[in-house]
Task: structure prediction
Amino acid sequence: MFQVFHGKKTKLSLSDVQSVTILGGQGKAGQKEEVAEVRFEMGNVVSIVGSTGSGKTALINDIELFANANTPTRRKVLINGATPPPDLMEDPSKNPISRITQHTNFLTDLPVETFLHMHAKVRKYNSDENVVKETLDFANQLTGEPIIPENSMTELSGGQTRALLIADAVVIGNSPVLLLDEIENAGIHRGRAMELLRNYQKIFIFVTHDPKIALLSDFRIVMSNGAMQKVLYPDDDEKIIAGEISKLDDLMIKFRNRLWEGERITQKDLAVGLSKLIADEMEGSS
Ligand SMILES: Nc1ncnc2c1ncn2[C@@H]1O[C@H](COP(=O)(O)OP(=O)(O)OP(=O)(O)O)[C@@H](O)[C@H]1O
Ligand SMILES: [Mg+2]
Result:
């Protein structure tokens, strides 16, 4: 695999990937994009936000396809600042980009543990490296009901499947760039996911409708009418709000868990929950 870089041909291996750049193209109406260039560096956690139909999925499709002015958006995607070689997508072991969608399913009924060991072997980990355990631990921090390693892959629930896919891609898979498409609907613990992902040096790009994921990201790309409208970095206010939103989210999760356990929620529960949030906030700002 070769990459044209400053006029020279250089080899591009997965560990060489340092950045991904999107060069702006056009929106749905053919209008020039406000954002002319956006760059993702290793370790960045980024969100793509915008209303339904604003072009979020189209943007990550461009990244996944290494668009080169050959999609309706006319965007270009660069790796380490240069046009990637055209055959990058042909060999999955060399493709630096992995995508986790809502609709991915496992097509194997192997036991979870066997599947992970096989994947670890393919990825050339030694058997004494604890990647399988690390993957399961990671996945189990995202799910309500723990994954049983002896169970078959097809027995996993939707949320468990998604959690395992994310953990497997992050821990065992060595893709430097992960595209995560609306994981909020998968019933996994997003706050934990964001925290855990930060332990791994990769580029994480979330398409999200979830304000919590957006505010916990390093920056967000705002989409409108098929175009990248703005790139916003959280300011001091938003950093504080991200923490408060997490508490609001925890309250919702608490309510959700009670519903799952067949309990009822009262107006008093809501009032107590909200007043506790406000009291914490007053304490924090005094
Ligand atoms: N720059 C563009 N030029 C032409 N068509 C575009 C452009 N951006 C998006 N589209 C098209 O507009 C439609 C909606 O875009 P997209 O599916 O990306 O929206 P979305 O933000 O992901 O919406 P949702 O939140 O519902 O998933 C799609 O058919 C897509 O191909
Ligand atoms: Mg979409």
About this structure: The CA atoms of residues 134 and 171 lie 7 Å apart. Residues 235-286 form one domain.
